[in-house]
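haha ok so turns out i had the wrong file open the whole time. this is the CORRECT one, sorry everyone. sequence first:
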Amino acid sequence: MVKTLRRWRPPWLVCAWAGLLLITWSNTAATQEPKEHSELDATVVAPFRATAGARTTQARTSQSRTFIVRLAYPDAGRTHAVRWSLTLSGPGPQGAVLRRWSGTEQVGAGGKSVTVPWDGRADADARERRVLAPDGLYQLRLLAEADPGTPQEMQMEQQWHVQVQRGASTAPRVPAFQTGLQQLPSLEGQSDYRLVYANLHSQTRHSDGGAALDACHGAQDPRTAPFGPIDAYKYAQEHGLDALLTSEHNHMYDGSDGTNPAATAAEATTLYQTGLAEAAAYTAAHPGFLALYGMEWGVINKGGHLNIFNSEQLLGWERNALGELLADVETPKGDYAGLYTLMRERGWVGQFNHPAQTGQFLVGDQALGYTPDGDAAMVLCEVMNTSAFSINDQETETRRSNYEAACNRALAAGYHVAFSSNQDNHCANWGASYGNRTAVLVTSPAAGTPVSRDGFLEALRARRVFATMDKHAQLLFTANGKLMGERFDNHGPLHLATHFSNSAGRQAAAVAIFHGVPGNNGSVTPVSDQAEFTVTPAPGPHFYYARLTQDDGNIVWSAPVWVNQLP
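then structure:
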């Protein structure tokens, strides 16, 4: 009897011990998971033009300038060896590589900047020092790599343009935006096109954003910052945006960057519903501004972030100590194919956020792997972002990232995505760190009618979108009169046309029309450096898009057109 009594434990004590063990396990597992925003980051500051105030004739003639490579790897204080290379090629989109710089840096959370002076010469060899790079547009390509050959391998690629101009400008002629718009037929009886300039990627205190600018030093501890969605919508509207999406990290509704075993499931799902209600109420109270609320699903490391624009339910994979799902709908972490299927079933549409060419959006072992469900659900791909942790509120942020190579990989895989350009704001400067926007052509039944959420989503599904680094830019791209974003069959010649205007007076410095074949996972290549181009494609599927570089270096990307060329 005594022996039996020694083994007996009160049920409440057994449950308490079990709960404590589960909490300890959950906390240990959370500490082993990489924190969000702890990945390799690499950008290059590349002056588009030589310094306007060059003091000497020699400096003005050489077109010299300085590039700055910025590297950061905020991985819990660890230091990584980051190998980088910077190549300059041109002139023109198919020009040869002229110069190459490279190095290896020990990089941690504090980051490191490398100054790369360019003397404006076409060759670094001392015997060729008299050879200046000829006038034209050049491509600067940054590659950065950490931990190569290991499961932790990370790669970044950035591409920007620089211009050499000593003589008179030879800019291409580009017809005006309104001229192209007037040539388009109305869509199914709709009488009016609206250009909605949006920022479709930002955070508030509902996850790890919303800090005041003087206190914002990166991602916030989830749900601790002072400013929420209503503050974000008000700020964005006051700074001239037409629409803002607050896209909160789906796995931070428990108040942590890992897993919070003490979280309450009802509190997480109620907060998501609160965000939806606030967006709807703000839109109703402020005609002319569209407030959107959604989620940024996934993790970056061995994952990939994507925005879901129109889900009425919170998706997640985390559970508390009681085993309760901290979301409305369970979506296994890292299962992108399964997520795409769910999105298609529910009519949800999404955006690939700051995509990498390797290690993200895996289907099987394929990065940016294609599925028919994913093709139906994913409508946008971020081609350019400003720094997520910028505290700039003057639209002059220099830390900017280009993801055109990754978006091209998605297009070549078979995805029908348009390009977008957002700011991923975590600080309280929603839409103000730079002038970049995602521009959406929305139709409405009557002039003066506010843009509705449904109308906006319809335009996203139709891919009537262009991505711009300049909020004053307007770009159209058509194929035999079909608007960018469309898919159609074609016989005979295909006439591709680019139309552009800028209300602030900027002009085109260069235009490139690109071509690729969806589904072959091949390359995407330039086929013309003119605003208009006629080609007879080979039988089968094709896509084309236009990229226009302004005379200040800012870039505008059209959505593609997808053409099935018939014999």
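The longest helix spans residues 11-32.
again sry for the mixup
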